[in-house]
Design brief:
Radius of gyration: 13 Å
Shape: elongated
Largest sheet: none
Oligomer: single chain
Distance between the termini: 43 Å
Number of domains: 1
Length: about 60
């Protein structure tokens, strides 16, 4: 029996998003994680972290 796709996606996204939250660059994360340097999938995972860093309402709510 295969796990649901969302759990597989979450297990793949966890380490790179954690590293991005620590300030690491996408190229470094890709290289060390075995991703293509400009992977669109990896960029999508990292975008979730970046949207919180660039949040205009940060500190307002």
């Amino acid at each position: 029996m295969q796990p649901p796709p969302e759990s597989v996606d979450a297990s793949l996204a966890g380490p790179p998003t954690r590293l991005r939250g620590q300030g690491h660059d996408q190229i470094v994360i890709a290289k060390q994680g075995g991703w293509a340097p400009h992977s669109k999938v990896l960029a999508g995972y990292l975008e979730v972290v970046d949207q919180w860093e660039d949040n205009a309402l940060l500190g307002v709510l």
